[in-house]
Amino acid sequence: MNYNNPFIKTLETLANMAIVSFLWLVFSLPVLTIVPSSAALFHTTSKIIFGSGKGNGVFKDFFDSFKENLKEGAILSLIMIIAALFIAEGLWTGFQFHKVSLWGMAYFVLGIVIAFFFVTALVHIAPVLSRFEAPVSSIIRMAVYFAIRKPLRSILFCILFVAMVLCVYAFPLALLMVPAVYADFQRGPLDKDFDLFAEENGLLEEETEETEENIEKKQEDASIVDLEERFSKERK
User: Fold this and answer.
1) Cα–Cα dist 80/139, whole Å
2) pLDDT for 142-166, tens place per residue?
3) What is the rounded distance in angstroms from the CA atom of residue 207 to the CA atom of residue 83?
4) Potential cystine with 108: which of 4, 9, 47, 94 (Cβ 3.0-4.6 Å)?
5) Alpha carbons 109 and 35: distance in angstroms, whole number
6) Residue 217 gets which letter from DSSP?
7) Best CA proximity match to 111, nearest among 92, 84, 91, 96
8) Using CA atoms, how far apart are residues 68 and 71, in angstroms rounded to an integer?
9) Residues with Cβ < 8 Å from 142, sequence gap 6 or more?
10) What is residue 172's DSSP assignment?
11) Buried b / exposed e across 50-73, counting CB within 10 Å, b at 16+?
């Protein structure tokens, strides 16, 4: 069988997308692991399924990425959940009083603005965590930075996210494909932004040789400790 056949490679890609979507669902069940699981989803989709790959396969790459991001990701999950609850409560309160007084209207509008920035930053948290190693506070700042850098694109990401949720609501089995599809939508533009960010901050790239296949691949290996110091470590 010719495994380089376009049809076979398409089937392989679809199968891998289904696998990582299922892994994302299983690893997200504890709720507090949803951010590291989403980071592993983005990493595997970007680097293995649609990237150059490392020869490890989707299972190993997903698990390795999940384990590497677990500590910071769990903290980020907790922060995001608490923030979402506070924002939801604020929006509900504002909605209840927005017709009562001008202050109530102002409170409601402020809540909408805060919710907008929160959601746009939220959809960038996992991709940033998957790519950069940094303290939790820096991951949040980077997510906000990439969100406001291109606001129209961030809005599109949010619209696509809602569309994916509605798709899963209408067809529950779509959950076995939708997570990887959404990660693929984000992958192209965000990878370009991440590469540009690495270049702007003087991050290094080094070439490594994959001995099993005897081909050269470029792997970014640098560090980002904090945005304020403009230095960090980019994950392989």
Assistant:
1) 12
2) 999 999 988 999 999 999 999 999 9
3) 41
4) 94
5) 28
6) E
7) 91
8) 8
9) 124, 128, 132, 134, 227
10) G
11) beebbeeebeebbeebbebbbebb
Q: Count helices and strands (H / E) in the chain.
A: 7, 5
Query: Within the chain, what is the greatest distance between any pair of CA atoms?
Result: 72
Enter the pTM of the model.
Answer: 0.78
Confirm if 130 and 39 have CB atoms less than 8 A apart.
yes
Secondary structure class of 105 (helix, strand, coil): helix
CB neighbours of residue 5 within 10 Å = 10
Give the whole-angstrom CA distance, residue 154 versus residue 83: 19
For the segment 25-38, what is each residue's pLDDT rounded down to a tens digit?
999 999 999 999 99
Residue 24: closest CA among 39, 42, 43, 37: 37
State the burial class of residue 142 (Cβ atoms within 10 Å of its Cβ: 0-12, 13-18, 19+): buried
Please choose, from the candidates 154, 129, 145, the residue with its C-alpha nearest in 3D space to the C-alpha of residue 232: 129
Distance between CA atoms of residues 210 and 56, nearest Å: 12
SS3 for 33?
coil
Q: Which amino acid is at 63?
A: F
Query: Which tokens hold the place of 144?
Result: 């906000």
Instruction: Return the bridge partners of 205, or none.
Output: 220
